[in-house]
UniProtKB/TrEMBL annotation:
Residues 13-378 form the Cation/H+ exchanger transmembrane domain. Its main location: membrane. This is Sodium/hydrogen exchanger. Belongs to the monovalent cation:proton antiporter 2 (CPA2) transporter (TC 2.A.37) family.
Length: 406
C-alpha cells in the first residue's frame, strides 16, 4: 500500500467530514478545518494502517497548504476591483480608515500590555486588523443581507482593509523574514516591496487589452494552464523583492479582475480554491500542539474584546457618515468581526521568522473565537441592537379638543 497516497486521502476525508458537519450546522467551516488539524498531527494516536500523525505526508500537506494560500489570495484579487475602490464613496474611505486605525492601535495596545518585542507586536497588529473576506461574504449570503444598504459599505471597507493588509504583509516580510536589523535596511526593503506592488498593478492595468487578446483561448485546458502559470511564476518571482508569495498571487488576481475574461477565470479557479484552501487551514491546525495554547488564553480573550469594541466603533462611524440607521451601523461592525485567512498567513510569517511561539498560539485562539463569534453576532445583531440601541418611545401627544363655534 502506498502510505503517502493513503495519508493524503485520509486527510481529505477528515476535511470532508468536518465540512459536512459545518454545512449541516450552517456555520463557518474555517474553524472546523483548523480544529480537525489540531485534533490529529504528531501528538495523535496510531492505529495500524491508520496513522493520524501524518508523519510521511506532513511535508506534502504543508506544500499543498502553501498552494492553497496562493489560490485563496488569487481568487480574492479577482473579486477586488481597484477601479471600484477608487470610485468608492466617502463613507467607505472614512469607514475603512477608521477600521484600520482603530484595530491597528488595538494591536499596538495589546502588544504593549503584554510586553511583546516590536516584531511580535507588528505581527499581532496585522492579525487583529485583517477581517476574513471569506467568512464575511458567506455570512452575508446565508443571512440574505446582500441587498441591505450597509452591505456595499461592508464590502468596500473589506476591500480597503485587504489593500492595507497587502502592504502590511510586504512590510512584515521585510521586517521579519529578510534578516535585516537596522531601521534603514528594513525601510529600504519595505519600500522596494511597495514600489514593486504599485508598479506591477500600474503596468498590469495598462496591458489589459493585450491580456484580453492573449486569453482568447478556446481550449479550457490551455486556458487554465496559462492562468496557473502566470499565478505561480508571479508569486515565486515576487519574493525576489521581499513581497510574500501570497501577495504576488493577490496582485495577479487584481490585474486579471479588470479583464473581460474574469468570470471564466473564476469559474475554473473556484474548485482549486476550495480544495487547496481547505487543506491550508487543515495544515495550519497540524502545526499546533493544543497543549501549547493555554499560555495565550488571556491574550486572545483581551484581543477579542478589543476587536469587538473597535469594530462597533468603526462600524458606527462608517454608518453615521453614510447616513444609515444605527441598526445598520451595528450590522457593519459585527459583520466585520470575523477573522480568518489573512490572520493565519501573518501568523505563519511570524513562525517562519522564528518569533515567539505565543504569537502563533494567540493567532489560533483569536481566529477560532472570532470565526465562531463573528457569524453569531452578525446573525443576532438586530436583537442586540434592540436590547442596547433601541431609543426610548416618546409618549404620543394627546389630540387637541376642537371647540365648536357658538
Amino acid at each position: 500500500m502506498d502510505t503517502l497516497i493513503f495519508e493524503i486521502g485520509l486527510a481529505i476525508a477528515l476535511i470532508t467530514i468536518v465540512g459536512l458537519v459545518s454545512n449541516k450546522l450552517r456555520f463557518s467551516v474555517i474553524p472546523f478545518y483548523i480544529l480537525i488539524g489540531m485534533a490529529v498531527g504528531p501528538h495523535a494516536p496510531h492505529f495500524g494502517v491508520i496513522d493520524l500523525r501524518f508523519i510521511e505526508s506532513g511535508v506534502f500537506i504543508d506544500f499543498m497548504g502553501r498552494i492553497g494560500v496562493l489560490f485563496l489570495l488569487f481568487y480574492l484579487g479577482l473579486e477586488f476591483s481597484v477601479t471600484r475602490l477608487l470610485k468608492s464613496g466617502k463613507s467607505i474611505v472614512v469607514g475603512g480608515l477608521c477600521y484600520i486605525g482603530i484595530n491597528f492601535v488595538s494591536g499596538l495596545l495589546l502588544g504593549w500590555l503584554m510586553g511583546f518585542p516590536l516584531k511580535e507586536t507588528m505581527v499581532i497588529c496585522g492579525i487583529m486588523t485583517s477581517s476574513s473576506t471569506a467568512i464575511v461574504a458567506k455570512v452575508l449570503v446565508d443571512l440574505k443581507r446582500t441587498a441591505n444598504p450597509e452591505t456595499e459599505i461592508i464590502m468596500g471597507m473589506i476591500m480597503f482593509d485587504d489593500l492595507f493588509i497587502a502592504v502590511h504583509i510586504s512590510i512584515l516580510s521585510g521586517l521579519v523574514l529578510s534578516g535585516d536589523s537596522s531601521f534603514w535596511s528594513v525601510l529600504l526593503t519595505s519600500l522596494s516591496a511597495l514600489i514593486f506592488i504599485l508598479l506591477f498593478l500600474f503596468i498590469g492595468r495598462r496591458f489589459i487589452p493585450f491580456i484580453d487578446k492573449g486569453l482568447n483561448i478556446k481550449s479550457a485546458e490551455l486556458f487554465l494552464l496559462v492562468i496557473i502559470s502566470a499565478l505561480f511564476l508571479t508569486a515565486g518571482f515576487s519574493e525576489t523583492f521581499h513581497v510574500a508569495e501570497a501577495i504576488g498571487a493577490l496582485m495577479v488576481g487584481m490585474v486579471l479582475a479588470e479583464s473581460s475574461h474574469v468570470k471564466r477565470i473564476e469559474h475554473y479557479i473556484l474548485p482549486f480554491r476550495d480544495l487547496f484552501g481547505a487543506i491550508f487551514f487543515f495544515s495550519f491546525g497540524l502545526t499546533i500542539d493544543p497543549t501549547s495554547l493555554f499560555g495565550a488564553v488571556w491574550v486572545a480573550l483581551l484581543g477579542v474584546l478589543l476587536t469587538i469594541i473597535g469594530n462597533m466603533l468603526s462600524g458606527y462611524i462608517a454608518g453615521r457618515v453614510a447616513g444609515i440607521s444605527g441598526r445598520a451601523s451595528m450590522n457593519i461592525g459585527f459583520t466585520l468581526v470575523s477573522r480568518g485567512e489573512f490572520s493565519i498567513i501573518m501568523a505563519n510569517i511570524g513562525k517562519m521568522g522564528g518569533l515567539l511561539p505565543v504569537v502563533q498560539s494567540f493567532a489560533v485562539l483569536y481566529v477560532l473565537i472570532l470565526a465562531v463569534l463573528g457569524p453569531l453576532l452578525t446573525k443576532e445583531s438586530e436583537r442586540i441592537y434592540g436590547l442596547f440601541g433601541k431609543p426610548r418611545q416618546r409618549p404620543k401627544p394627546k389630540p387637541k379638543q376642537q371647540h365648536k363655534e357658538m
